[in-house]
Design goal:
heterodimer; A: 289 residues; two-stranded antiparallel ribbon; 3% strand; B: 2 strands; 2% strand
Amino acid sequence: MEQILANGVYLGSQYAMIALGLTLIFALMNVLNFAHGQMYVLGGFVTYTFYGQLGLPFVVALLISCVTLAILGALIEKFLFAPVIKRSARDESTMLLAAGIAFLLDAIILLVFGEKQRGVPKIVNGVFNWDFRLIMPYDRILICVLAILSIVGFIAFMQYSKTGRALRALAQDRVAAQLMGVNVDRYSMIGFALGAMLAGLVGGLLVTITGINLGMGGPTSIKAFMMVMIGGAGVISGAIAGGIILGFLEAIGLAVLSQYGDITYLLIFISLMIFLAIRPQGLMGKPWG
Amino acid sequence: MKNITSKQIAGVAIFLFAIYVAVPVLIGVTGRWDFYFTLTSVALLSIAAAGVWLTFYIGRINIGQGAFALIGAYVSAILVTKVGMNFWITLPLAGLFAALFAVLIGLPILRLRGVYFAMITLVLTEVVKLTALALPVTNGAKGIVSIPLPQELSIFGITLIPDFATLSNVKLAFYYVACTLMVICFAAMYRLVNSRLGHLCRSMQQNEELASSIGVNIASLRIIVFAISSFLGGIGGAMFGSIAQSVYPSTFQVADSVNFMLYTFLGGLGYVFGPMLGTLTLYFGWNLLFEFGKYQLLIYSSIMILLMLFLPNGLLSLRLPKGKKPNAAAEAGKKAEGASK
């Protein structure tokens, strides 16, 4: 039981971070970012290159991957999303653009890093063992703690900094924020960069445990969509709740249902559909986001 | 239809001539027999994409067409292999089963809107795939293989469709069948959009509350439209399974669902023939780019992004002035152009 709970916390903290970036971008621009999983993979590969290949300290590699993704996100917003949003007759066109960017990132990752599964050396060795009731490698604990710290940091940033306040205002009401003197274009870009940076950060953190490969992008995006749906699209607390709930469901499901074969995700999907039929806007979302 | 102009009739005639005569002749001359399979796929995928387009017509973004295509493919494959039914009878049954499933699933999920509906349909694709993996009747990850070719279809002794196993050129036969299905499908779509139902759909696309307040029964309307859409997806999927002679859980997956949506978007959401053009451009373009090897995906996605940057409202918005229906002549011209490449 303790093991299941610990696994749940560990998975939940990672998932929450992935969902945070997605929901941030959604809240600010009303864009369903299909490329989120690919951004995560890219972050993993950047950390792999600098930490695993070039031998820089892990923290430096992590920072580089954050910065790379932030710059990439800002460029994507400025040169791709912003013009399309301005010119398109329908909001949904951005979905095609996002899917196109997902393919493009896939192609770039394939050309630059190849299709092989890549891993990096462990950052900390050893396994935490509490009387064989709870077994957890130290590096997982470290990553989990780092993830939770990042989430706390992100919330603090959104809550107390000027940029965070501007972003929240933008998410609440774009026009009103503009009237209050928020530079909407600039903060959209910053928000997108921040969302992409979070994806890169998770990628960099998780590459130390699960490794990284090209095929992880799509499934990660789907999981992120699920978490956002559970919590409610465009709500930061909802994304965190959704991530933790999905993490726990997965941990419990894998432990309890393993004898029936691989049906954990099937059950999660079906219960999600039932849940959404009852409460379409998720746990904390605004109705009809 | 009250006002069909002679220009439109000419356009349709050119289009039919192009797909039934010009394309086979061109392929025969150039010897690119592989294009038959590509074009057959385009025809079938555009049927499924038409379904996606139809759900968009009531203001829903559908990324779950892969699920219905997979259901259709499995229903047809199971009926043919396990029950021994004639494929041509299973084809409508596959569509009907997909439609029935759509009604059941649509009752709760059609209440969702916007991105929520988009995301839940995306999840639906994954659900169907996982169900196919888990159920015994679908044979899990091994899938259903070596499905026999379609048998003869005859009414009162008159052969309507010959037994495919006896044909010398199965590819051509499949091409004709797929094209015929596509023509029927798009003709029906055109009729539907210009009918009373189409007007009601347009009112719903613009504002559901308003439509409901003037007496449109939106709850039943959206179920009907979703069922039609899924019927098309099921038909397309069943035919696809029959051509490939195999069905796996991975035959239609999330990527395919997203692709159906992309075909529809790229063609232009405001035009009935958008899905056809979008499918042709993207699927055919993807196959043409095969020669670039590992740069295929890079070029493909760059072109897609550029198209979106410069034509954010779809390909068909290029030539047509705002608010005008696409005329079939331009469509047929493009189709012939694409096919002759």
